[in-house]
Write a structure and sequence with these properties.
The structure is a single chain. This protein has 144 residues and is of the alpha/beta class. It has one domain: 3-Layer(aba) Sandwich (Rossmann fold). 26% of the residues lie in helices and 28% in strands. It is built from 5 helices and 7 strands; from the N terminus they run βαβαββααβαββ. A hairpin with a 2-residue loop joins strand 6 (121-129) and strand 7 (132-139). Bound molecules: adenosine-5'-triphosphate and magnesium ion. Magnesium ion is lined by residues 40-41, 59, 79, 107. Adenosine-5'-triphosphate (ATP) is lined by residues 7-10, 12-13, 34, 36-42, 59, 107, 131-133.
Amino acid sequence: MKGVYSTDSPQETEDLGAEFSRGLYAGEIVGLSGDLGCGKTRFVKGIARGLGAKGCVKSPSFTIINIYEGGSIELYHIDLYRIGGADEFHCAGLEEFIYGKGISVIEWADKLPALLDECDWVVRFSHRGESKREIEIERRSGPR
Ligand SMILES: Nc1ncnc2c1ncn2[C@@H]1O[C@H](COP(=O)(O)OP(=O)(O)OP(=O)(O)O)[C@@H](O)[C@H]1O
Ligand SMILES: [Mg+2]
């Protein structure tokens, strides 16, 4: 699933995330970019639902990573908003998850360009109005 999508409500963004999740494989890395409040976390909520993950998705901003188990594949939800730079990222031990067997979805992945290069998917969010968002899904790695 790739291309440019437009959503008119948080629910539509969540549903798009659920649809997107069906094309994901174990071990893949998904980088999300876009301004504050443009729907990244809402999209992850849809991915979690699509994978059948247990637990409610909330922003991991204060914890850096939330792990959702119980679905078809483990989901690692990472938020780099408060990460200072590559050194801090390295010290946080996140690579263990990112290169692990689950699916990693990383908010603010564009803060670390080297990490963005590692992503199998890059999803870019833009505000297009009060409740309108443009969501561009790009596949980076080759087809399976
Ligand atoms: N079409 C839409 N899609 C998603 N969210 C929308 C939409 N329209 C309005 N919203 C609102 O925008 C906000 C999106 O919040 P969300 O936490 O998903 O953003 P975020 O990109 O994760 O922000 P942050 O960078 O702070 O983590 C919510 O308050 C939601 O209700
Ligand atoms: Mg968020």
